[in-house]
Design a protein that fits this description.
Number of helices: 10
Shape: globular
Structural class: alpha+beta
Number of strands: 9
Strand order of the largest sheet: 1-3-2
Length: about 270
Amino acid sequence: MLADGKIVAIKKSKVVDESQVEEFINEVVIISQINHRNVVQLLGCCLETEVPILVYEYISNGTLFHYIHDENEEFPITWELRLRIALDVTDALSYLHSAASIPIYHRDIKSTNILLDDKYRAKVSDFGTSRSVTIDQTHLTTQVHGTFGYVDPEYFQSSQFTDKSDVYSFGVVLAELLTGQRPILSTEFAEDRSLASYFLRAMKENRLFDILDVRVSKEGENEEIMNVANLTRRCLNLNGKKRPTMREVAIELAGNTRAQVEPQWCSKTTRG
């Protein structure tokens, strides 16, 4: 709690490690360029302490991962809420990729990095491995970063990260929202160990409605579910060039669902 009574979240490195210090400085540089309602706001930082400290707005309702995978009877995550959260995240990512003053690749999109505020609006967090790129840059060549189950297979093979690599990771989050399954599954079949391949195989074999989360199949309209599932399949395409952009994902998701929300990057106040 700050002197004025405001509750904040403190992020600090667990160990004194030069690479972690670099990650923290990178996070400050990246996130200080971002002003968006669906991105966690950095309030301040201190890099002079033994370990760096970042001060963020406090997001009260925890992670999306918790709501999908740890059943919460007090607040079940409805189909309509899943759609709204997905729209919030696409809004943030399309802003980062195509409306921020400098394009930014997040590089670690996953359900644990999507936080929910007191109104259950989504906020994207954790920009430690994010990178800004020049307008004419098509990719970053870097050591592979990310979380197993969410990493773009193309990036894993080539070490070239593009905006479509974030799209792939978001596709895994969409598959989590649809199926209620974790990104890495406990199964004896190696080919179904990743949620992405499990989901793609079910789609190919027309078994989508066999793998849906119970709440999704009960509450969603079949056409709406199919639209979101087909969009998810396109996001998970193994060929990055065939994936939609985040801007296209945002427009399509808003157009195909009942949650008609105007993306914030359409407003006049987005840049700057």
